[in-house]
Write a structure and sequence with these properties.
The protein has 240 residues and is α/β, with parallel strands linked by helices. It is built from 9 helices and 7 strands. Helices cover 49% and strands 16% of the residues. The protein has a 7-stranded parallel β-sheet, with helices on both faces. α1 (13-24) crosses α9 (208-219) and α3 (59-73) runs parallel beside α4. It binds acetoacetyl-coenzyme A.
Length: 240
């Protein structure tokens, strides 16, 4: 039977590319999304991949959402925690809500999803969890104390959970994307983005498919000895 995979934030941007890559590997993919019904419906019409709506920052919603996917598609063997938001601003201007929302969704989402799938993966002796971190979690970024903290937390979460899963055939890895050509990066003010791109040795933004390529590698059945690692895909912007 084809393995079932959940990609959070899987209907747009990097998540869409990941959903397609896992589907192309023969998996049955459930693309989770939180808000944009129109874009999710268009994604399903375009790809045939079913979209499931829940907020990954909501613990109970994750338990219920995974149960719904498993009832329809079978046991979930692969989870890609890709869903993420930005609420940029310098500390002086950042509200508590901006801090809390980013930590709740970006970091809390990883915990919530892992809690929902880990016992099943353990009982079946197989699991692949890939968490999408960020170059800004590795290096920090002006105006992102919330996002950099959440993404840095994701890298710690990955290394801790990898140690817990290893004996049971569950690998847990992270990818640290650099600046990728998505709506999230397009929201950075033009003159700020220009300066960032000027510091990327490759001289360009990355493409979503270039992140999906790494995720596909980490999710493969024969990647079982790769765990607790972070794969940086950033055009040489930060070597860590
Ligand atoms: N280092 C040092 N100083 C800096 C700086 C930097 N990197 N960036 C800006 N400053 C300075 C500015 O020069 C300015 O100084 P002056 O007042 O003396 O001129 C001061 O800080 C204020 O800067 P802004 O005018 O930019 O402040 P703002 O409040 O209008 O905006 C901001 C702040 C919203 C954070 C804006 O700078 C911004 O959007 N920065 C980009 C943040 C970013 O890279 N986000 C990434 C989003 S994509 C993503 O996160 C995906 C991923 O994983 C990579």
């Amino acid at each position: 039977m084809a393995r079932a995979a959940i990609v959070t934030g899987g209907t747009r941007g990097i998540g869409e590319a990941i959903s397609l890559a896992l589907r192309d590997m023969g998996m049955t993919v459930a693309a989770n999304y939180a808000g944009n019904d129109d874009k999710a419906a268009a994604f399903t019409a375009r790809t045939g991949i079913k979209a499931y709506k829940w907020d990954v920052g909501d613990h109970q919603a994750c338990l219920d959402g995974v149960a719904r996917v498993e009832a329809e598609l079978g046991p979930v063997d692969v989870v890609v925690n890709n869903a993420g938001i930005t609420r940029d601003g310098t500390l002086m201007k950042m509200s508590y809500d901006q801090w809390d929302e980013v930590i709740r969704v970006n970091l809390g989402g990883c915990f919530n999803m892992a809690k929902a799938v880990f016992a099943g993966m353990k009982s079946r002796g197989f699991g692949r969890i890939v968490n999408i971190g960020s170059i800004n979690g590795q290096a920090g970024q002006y105006g992102q104390v919330n996002y950099a903290s959440a993404k840095s937390g994701i890298h710690g979460f990955t290394k801790a959970l990898a140690q817990e899963g290893a004996r049971f055939g569950i690998t847990v890895n992270a990818i640290a994307p650099g600046y990728i050509d998505t709506d999230m990066v397009a929201a950075v003010p033009g003159e700020v983005l220009e300066k960032i791109v000027a510091k990327i040795p490759a001289g360009r933004l990355g493409q979503a498919q270039e992140i999906a390529r790494g995720v596909a590698f980490l999710c493969a059945d024969d990647a079982g000895f790769v765990t607790g690692s972070t794969l940086s895909i950033n055009g040489g912007q930060h070597m860590y």
